[in-house]
Amino acid sequence: MKIGDDINQKSQRGHQGGATIADVARESGFSPMTVSRVINGEKNVKDSTREAVLAALKKLQYSPNLAARSLAGAEPIRIVMLYGNPSVAYLSRLLVGTLEQARKSHVQLIIEQCDSEKGIRDVFNDLVEGAVDGIILSAPLSDSATVQELLEKTDIPCVAVNSWSPLGKMSVVHIDDVEAAATMTRHLTSLGHKRIGFVKGNPEHNASLQRLKGFEVAMAEAGLPVDPALVVDGLFTYRSGLQAAEQLLDLPDPPSAIFASNDDMAAAVITVAHRRHLDVPRDLTVCGFDDTDFALSIWPELTTIHQPIAEMSRAAVEILVERIREKRSGRTPKREQRLLDFTFVRRESDGAPPSK
């Protein structure tokens, strides 16, 4: 037996005890190679041929395994993840999920950082020239007008992670940031807090605006005014959290609780509180958002909103692979918006306001 024949036989075995590619070929009347092309979503197959093979696949309940698909010559999938988020803790969770799902989906993953307008354009030019099959974007790149402009010039499928306003044809995976922030704020008001400081996120992230909206909604529900002096700017960075905390705690009537839009900034608030010899949570309640490693690496451990970052990036890879296969089969990739659940996580950094 020739080596090539041996590989071809192995590629036709499908799953143990079930129909093989050879069985489907006999049922459909086409060659095993043609059946393989249909299974792998290749374009160079006539519509009538594809329909006949798909009918045979369905009749025989054929389920190809990954090894068979690989040996049959499935065209590899190359995707790139572009990121610009300054939070190392957030990025760590994002990468873990993306890498895990890329491995499970048997796709090649490229990771590129984009921190400037020129960087975004240079990377996109390289992507088009490098024949990348799909793109995953993390905020704030997913909210960038420049990215939208560049995507409109290409037919590369794209999925955004944690974007509330996906641009154009992008699919998106996100949580309900409004309801998540409102949930945390309701918890603070239920403890008796009335003067609650809020540290905003990067204004270039649509999620920042949604979290602020959720804070305002819950304050209104509790019949509490939002003091503009208690809402301060942040950039989702630890350093911006330090500055925001100093600004809030320097007020003549400082807040009894501070809700920061991510864990990096919340950790910075706790640092400033310690510098000022304030006990958390006896003297000051501090809460965050994301539930990254920062939430567990500080003292006291942080009450926060668990955002399933790794799960969102896994879902993004799944959706992107589906869109790529749709495109390869000649169909127009559909746009999908997938909403995942958040979780309120109470730890040790919150309590009732101090008695005066």
Structure description:
This protein is α/β, with parallel strands linked by helices and 356 residues long. It has three domains: 3-71, lambda repressor-like DNA-binding domains (434 Repressor (Amino-terminal Domain), Orthogonal Bundle), CATH 1.10.260; 78-175 and 310-341, Rossmann fold, CATH 3.40.50.2300; 177-307, Rossmann fold (3-Layer(aba) Sandwich). It has 14 helices and twelve strands. It has helices at 3-11, 21-28, 32-39, 47-60, 66-71, 88-104, 117-129, 145-151, 177-190, 206-221, 238-249, 263-275, 294-297, 309-328; strands at residues 78-83, 108-113, 134-138, 158-161, 171-174, 196-199, 231-232, 257-260, 285-287, 304-306, 337-339, 343-345. The chain has a six-stranded parallel beta sheet, with helices on both faces. Helix 12 (263-275) links the parallel strand 8 and strand 9 (285-287). Helix 2 (21-28) crosses helix 4 (47-60), helix 3 crosses helix 4 and helix 6 packs across helix 14. It is elongated. Residues 1-17 and 66-73 have low confidence and may be disordered.
